[in-house]
Amino acid sequence: xxxxxxxxxxxxxxxxxAVKISFTSVDGATTLVTLSHTRFGSVADPAAVQADFAAxxxxxxxxxxxxxxxx
Length: 71
Prior knowledge:
- 31% of the residues lie in helices and 37% in strands.
- The chain contains one helix and three strands, in the order βββα.
């Protein structure tokens, strides 16, 4: 399963980036979550925005994993 979104956090709604999250069952108790964040070319400072999100996504996914019951 996957979900694709236009993402506007931390920058203008007129220049959305793209986020795709996929969920792949590894076994009965484990799911692999893969996140792809692209389309930074239209934001004011693409390198800075991409670096900010590269640092932020592990925290967000860690919180999601804990919320879903990961240890």
